[in-house]
Amino acid sequence: MRNTIILVDDNETNLVMGKNMLSTFYQVIPAPSAAKMFEVLEKVTPDLILLDIDMPEMNGYEAMKKLKANLKLSDIPVIFLTAKDDVDSELEGFELGAVDYITKPFSAPLLLKRIGKELLIAKREKELSKAMAEIKDYADNLDVKVKEKTDEVFNLQNSVLMTVSDLVEFRDKDTGGHIIRTKCYLKILVDEMQKEGLYKDEISGWDMDFFLSSAQLHDVGKIAITDTILNKPGKLSAEEFNVMKNHVNAGVEAIEKIINNTSRHSFLNHAIRIAGTHHEKWDGTGYPIGLRGNNIPLEGRLMAIADVYDALISKRPYKNAFTHEEACKIIEDGSGTQFDPVLVGVFRNVEPEFDKIAHEIGS
User: pTM of this prediction?
Assistant: First the structure.
């Protein structure tokens, strides 16, 4: 079933153009005024509203206040459409509760991407609300087993991680499948480490479910990187690469904020180490700190191999995909410089499984 969108604009040309852009993917209901929009809302509850700001009689800001004052309508995500591009107008829109702000004239790809992002967020929020309600029901029922409650909490935590990682991957259009593949690579590496008895003291206290789920946040800081750099159709300049490096610190800050605002944050302990150190190198030449050797947390050293392998075998605007054999050689050549030599040895033993995952989970 297609999502329903109400498109509100007093300009007939914009209404026709907007409907033509969106109707392939969504059910679009055009409304030439805010008043007409509220008439439609008496019969239809849309999944999203595209609301023009500059309209006679009732402008977008006034309509937004009226929407938020109605309990039945207040949760509908609203994206403002306007020809204004000043910061004050944009801030006013966000303060009133808009989820996004698109300046006109807009391109079809940009509009579709922004709408898709907000519909994904709304879907995940509904899933989280449902999970929270189910957890409350379980908590109120004294006969529910402790294990079932624990599993539900874990599923909720994992849903949060999935939501955030989905948003990162949604923005970075060139890394489709990267998050789930790296998670699979990590499991292969850890299983082999346990089999060989390597770093057993360090991993003995790990909750493997938490570790693997937390790995999904390794690039969460990319949310803070501008689209012009994140999705640049070519190789980054030195200055742009320095900006891109900031995704590490941004990711750590984001995870720290979650930790500081929740009592259930043990599942994020792995996440903050992975996000903060997966670009460090064994010889100390990595970033952001320049940690060396075993001073790099084991989680970061493991993710470094998984992350680099996947980047190598994936096509990018600035390079073709390397073959599995070429990627393996690059990682093996980096033993003792970029990567932990012990973990490179583990990788050699399981590299056919990496190749299998890369083919099974395409971009």
Answer: 0.56
